[in-house]
């Protein structure tokens, strides 16, 4: 059995995620899922953007959307089609201030793309641009009084996780949960996902 600081950190992160998931708005989650389903049914494109570790979580989500049958792309990759009115951009930034993500959201809005922001700060520049905001509690790399208050609410005084780890870990599990709900609503089985999985890896 793993012990020491590694075990303490894992348990601290798990404890945070268990508490944080109860603070995520079901209404915000519902708006996000409904928007994604509408995009799929209407043949619209879904774009994903995030920077750093948040971007990696975004790519993992994009992969599952592909397996679900979505026409999905990751902003910043070489193969990226033109965005059109009615498409959807899922923009991820814990702080809501990541320049690349905010700039992409602004560009998307200017051509009629619906913007979903996933962030810890709804009142951030990204949150103010978005059509839909999903607030994910987390300690971001931006040290602030709001971060401190958020940690106190969750009963975590000094989480053993650096920078934005708590946001990113909560985000990963939340988006995996969204994938399961999408599977259920769309009537997609694991076998369907397997049939769309890459076979030249």
UniProtKB/TrEMBL annotation:
InterPro entries in alphabetical order: PHI/rmpB (IPR017552), SIS_dom (IPR001347), SIS_dom_sf (IPR046348)
Secretion signal span: none
Main enzyme class: isomerase
GO MF annotation list: 6-phospho-3-hexuloisomerase activity; carbohydrate derivative binding
Keyword Repeat set for record: no
Family of this protein: Belongs to the SIS family. PHI subfamily.
Protein name: 3-hexulose-6-phosphate isomerase
Organism classification: Archaea, Thermoproteota, Thermoprotei, Desulfurococcales, Desulfurococcaceae
């Amino acid at each position: 059995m793993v012990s020491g600081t590694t075990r303490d950190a894992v348990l601290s992160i798990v404890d945070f995620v268990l508490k944080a998931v109860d603070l995520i708005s079901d209404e915000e989650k519902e708006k996000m899922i409904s928007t994604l389903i509408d995009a799929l049914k209407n043949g619209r494109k879904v774009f994903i953007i995030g920077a750093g570790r948040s971007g990696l979580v975004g790519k993992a989500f994009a992969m599952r959307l592909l397996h679900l049958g979505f026409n999905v792309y990751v902003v910043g990759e070489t193969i990226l089609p033109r965005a059109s009115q009615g498409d959807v951009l899922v923009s991820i930034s814990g702080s809501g201030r990541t320049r690349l993500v905010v700039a992409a959201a602004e560009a998307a809005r200017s051509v009629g793309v619906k913007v979903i922001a996933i962030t810890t700060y709804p009142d951030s520049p990204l949150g103010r641009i978005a059509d839909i905001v999903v607030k994910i509690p987390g300690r971001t790399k931006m040290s602030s009084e709001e971060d401190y208050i958020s940690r106190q609410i969750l009963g975590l005084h000094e989480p053993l996780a650096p920078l934005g780890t708590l946001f990113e870990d909560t985000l990963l599990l939340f988006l995996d949960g969204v994938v399961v709900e999408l599977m259920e609503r769309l009537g997609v089985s694991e076998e369907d996902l397997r049939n769309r999985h890459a076979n030249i890896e």
